[in-house]
Amino acid sequence: LAAMVTNFLQKYQLQNHHLILPKKQFVTYAVYALIVLAFLHYLLFYPASASDKSVVAQVQQEVAPAVVSARVGAREQLLPPTPSPHQGDEALGNPLAEEEAPAPPPCDYSDGEWVPDARPPLYNGTSCGTIKDGQNCMSHGRPDTGYLYWRWRPRGCDLPAFSPDAFLGWLRNRHLAFVGDSLARNQAESLLCLLASRSAPELVYRDGEEGRFRRFVFREFNATVSVFWSPFLVKVAEKAERAGVRHNNVFLDAFDERWMSRLGALDAAVLSVGHWFLIPGVYHDGGLVVACHDCADLNHTETDFFGAFRDAVHRTLAEVTRRHGRGAADGKKKVVALTTFSPAHFEGDWDKAGACPRQRPYSAGEKEMGYTEAELRKIVVEAVRVAADAAAGSGLRFAALDVTALANLRPDGHPGPFMHKDPFASGGGEGAVDRRVQNDCVHWCMPGPVDTFNEVLLQTILR
Ligand SMILES: *[C@@H]1O[C@H](CO)[C@@H](O)[C@H](O)[C@H]1NC(C)=O
Ligand SMILES: *[C@@H]1O[C@H](CO)[C@@H](O)[C@H](O)[C@H]1NC(C)=O
Ligand SMILES: *[C@@H]1O[C@H](CO)[C@@H](O)[C@H](O)[C@H]1NC(C)=O
């Protein structure tokens, strides 16, 4: 497999030399080319299975109290004066508030720093039953727990801790859907666990491998959360490597009706895509190939993936607005939130034990956002601005969950080798960094930094 990676990379570099890409872009592409193979494995072929919940409890009980007590003092000093941002509480009890034009964002969550926080997570691998196996880091024997004790402090304002009661209060008699790739699923599963700390969800529908389509109901609240698989938002014929099809064929002029056709039933949608645009893809529009990424073998002109990404996002949001028309009959305002790109943190060889070995967040300014990540983020933020302008007064509200910067500073929040249970059990030991094991430095441990995405989501829907 290592040889495959090398070949792939060499071919890739060759290809990019031909195109004489700017150096910055070239480096980014090369890095992503390397990541790609890792993706192929765990995004597509990595089997979901029931989580094993035994190990965590002990490890955490031994380590956590020490961490907590050490950090309590630090946190008190670091806590900002709390401006009590209960924005949106009025909207909960006052239906008229929902008719008003969207207020400017009261707090910019996109920029800030991670500060120590002694509060334990709202859930863990023992208390939440819906953690995907590959993200159940504690149960898989991840020995350090320090990565659990941080909170995001935006510059100049406060991000309130997640409140399951506030979220379920909003979600009462409503239906929220997550639409996108495995990062969308990661965020959905984080929300389910956060809410499960207050009320147990019931799985009422499941279809597709790895639960690509699922619906959960919180009976007590008649609240529904569903998950739709749609890694490009628009229509795709997914690659099938076993059948020799290495490219996704994406149709920019056709929508993905698996979720689009359900729009009428939704009160809120969280769209999260990006990573699949980085893997080999052919993009079609009006019967023509308009973009192609990593496709020398197909005789199509190589393009970057930013244009295709921009098109897919813009067209999707325009179609959502078109189908929404002049608003739902009941006058309820709908929210469409887009999670911005969530950066990966591979540092060395993706299949070496220490592919994302850090155990602490980066401090503010320590880690600049990469070129690709920054571009993909910007495209989403701009698409949301355009869509919001076009939908003004329609009862449809677009918002960006601008998590790229906060996620970029969390190299410590990925499963790494702990995507598998006890990855070092068969010898080698933890010190053996030469050991080749699969690493996931893309998705997020649960609990972990992805829970913060949902803190931002809560403030966004309440606004
Ligand atoms: C897991 O969460 C439950 C419920 O909140 C709690 O009682 C338990 O102590 C937690 N376990 C660990 C290891 O933190
Ligand atoms: C339950 O929630 C659904 C939305 O998921 C809504 O359409 C329905 O009206 C709700 N039922 C009641 C009794 O309010
Ligand atoms: C690409 O072009 C070459 C030369 O014209 C041709 O021989 C080859 O069959 C083409 N490959 C594909 C996949 O169309």
TrEMBL record:
Chain segments carrying region Disordered: 77-111
For this UniProt record, give its keywords in alphabetical order, as a comma-separated list. Golgi apparatus, Membrane, Signal-anchor, Transferase, Transmembrane, Transmembrane helix
Where is this chain's protein located in or outside the cell? Golgi apparatus membrane
Annotated TM spans: 26-45
Q: How does it sit in the membrane?
A: Single-pass type II membrane protein
Superkingdom per UniProt: Eukaryota
Q: What family is reported?
A: Belongs to the PC-esterase family. TBL subfamily.
Question: What name goes with this protein?
Answer: Protein ALTERED XYLOGLUCAN 4
